[in-house]
Design a protein that fits this description.
PDCD2_C, Programmed cell death protein 2 C-terminal domain-containing protein, ten-stranded antiparallel beta barrel, PDCD2-like_regulator, 8 helices, two-stranded antiparallel ribbon, alpha+beta
Length: about 350
C-alpha cells in the first residue's frame, strides 16, 4: 500500500557552479560532470561506463542529468543517485546508478521524514526563505570562504574524482546547484496562499463525471477523459519551475492514466524497488551547454516525466548499483482525449 503521508520535496535550479572540482563530490546538482569520491577505484568507474553509460540503443556516451545525495536510513554511508541520459535524437535512453560510500564524515546536514528512521536529501545550503518557491536568489551551497576552508582542510573526504579523461564526455551540461524545499512549507508560504486565494476567486469550477473540478471550460475539454493527466497538470502549475519531485516510497506523479509497467527486483539482494523521485518537464529547459564553438547548442531530450525506482533495502553489497527508471512520453491533447 502506498505511503499516503510520505514527505514530498521539490528541487529547483539554483546558482551555477563555477568550478565543480572545488565543491564536495556529493553536491546536489544538475548537469556538469558526475563527481565521485576521490578514493573510488578507476576500474570501478570504467565498469560503470561500460555497463551503464554507453547507450544501449546507439552506443553513444550518456551525459549526466543530475546527481543527488539522499540518505534513506541510518546507514553512515554517503548515498548518491546519478541519472544519465543519451542525447541522441529519439533514443530516450536513461541510466540510474546508486553509489554507497563509507566515510567517517558521512553523517550530518540531513532532515528527517515523518518516520524518524528515514532521512531524505542532504540539506546543507538549502534556502531558508519560505517565499522562495522557485529556488531563485538563494545562497550558494558553498561560498568563497567555504571553498577556501575545504581546500585548506586536512580532511580529503570532500574531494571529487571525475570519470577517466579517456572516457570523459564532452557533452556536459552547464552545472547548477539544486535548491530543495519541503512542499508543505511552500504551501504554507504567503506567496502560495496568495496564489490559492486568487485561484478560488475565479468563477465556480466545472466538475467532470469523476468529481474532479476544472477551473475553466478549456481544461474540461482537454482533460475530460483523464483525471490523472489533469492532476499532473495542476501539480506542475502550482510550482512550474520544479525540476525534481522527491518522495521516498511515496506515490509517483503520473502524467496520464492507464499506465502499465513492472519494476524488477534489486539484482543485488532481491528486494523490491520503491519509487524515490522523478524528473519534471521544467528540467529540460535548464539543461544547457556552456558556450563553445565545438559544443552543440540544443538538447534533443524530451519527456513527460521520468520515474526513478531504487532498492527498498538500500543494499550496500556493491559500491555502484544499477537502479531502474520509467520513461513517460509527453502527453498531447490527442492522447489525453483518447478513450
Amino acid at each position: 500500500m502506498a505511503h499516503a503521508s510520505a514527505l514530498v520535496l521539490l528541487g529547483f535550479v539554483d546558482q551555477p557552479i563555477p568550478d565543480e572540482s572545488k565543491v564536495e563530490w556529493h553536491t546536489n546538482k544538475i548537469g556538469g560532470k558526475p563527481s565521485f569520491p576521490e578514493s573510488i577505484d578507476d576500474g570501478m568507474l570504467i565498469n560503470l561506463i561500460n555497463d551503464q553509460l554507453i547507450c544501449r540503443k546507439c552506443s553513444s556516451m550518456c551525459s549526466l542529468i543530475c546527481q543527488i545525495q539522499c540518505s534513506v536510513d541510518e546507514s553512515p554511508a554517503f548515498r548518491v543517485i546519478y541519472v544519465f541520459a543519451c542525447l541522441q535524437e529519439k533514443c530516450n535512453y536513461f541510466a540510474v546508478t546508486r553509489l554507497m560510500h563509507e566515510s567517517q564524515s558521512s553523517v550530518g546536514n540531513q532532515i528527517t521524514t515523518h518516520s524518524k528512521h528515514h532521512q531524505i536529501w542532504d540539506t546543507s545550503g538549502w534556502s531558508d526563505d519560505e517565499d522562495n518557491e522557485n529556488g531563485e536568489d538563494s545562497n550558494n551551497l558553498f561560498s568563497s570562504s567555504e571553498i577556501n576552508r575545504l581546500e585548506n582542510s586536512k580532511d580529503t573526504n570532500w574531494k571529487c574524482k571525475f570519470l577517466p579523461k579517456s572516457f570523459d564526455n564532452s557533452l556536459n551540461f552547464k552545472p547548477y546547484y539544486i535548491n530543495v524545499e519541503n512542499i508543505d512549507d511552500l504551501k504554507s508560504s504567503k506567496l502560495y496562499l496568495t496564489k490559492k486565494e486568487l485561484k478560488y476567486c475565479q468563477d465556480e469550477p466545472l466538475t467532470n463525471e469523476d468529481g474532479e473540478k476544472y477551473e475553466n471550460p478549456e481544461l474540461s475539454t482537454i482533460f475530460g477523459n483523464d483525471k490523472i493527466a489533469y492532476k499532473f497538470y495542476k501539480k506542475l502549475r502550482d510550482f512550474p519551475k520544479q525540476v525534481i519531485r522527491y518522495s521516498w516510497q511515496g506515490q509517483p506523479l503520473l502524467n496520464r492514466s492507464n499506465l502499465n509497467y513492472a519494476i524488477e527486483a534489486c539484482e543485488n539482494c532481491g528486494s523490491s524497488r520503491k519509487f524515490e523521485f522523478q524528473l519534471m518537464p521544467a528540467l529540460i529547459s535548464k539543461l544547457n551547454f556552456p558556450p563553445s564553438p565545438s559544443s552543440q547548442s540544443s538538447v534533443d531530450l524530451n519527456y513527460g516525466t521520468v520515474l526513478i525506482y531504487t532498492c527498498s533495502n538500500n543494499c550496500d553489497s556493491k559500491a555502484l548499483s544499477e537502479e531502474k527508471c520509467i520513461f513517460l512520453e509527453e502527453v498531447d491533447e490527442n492522447v489525453i482525449n483518447k478513450k
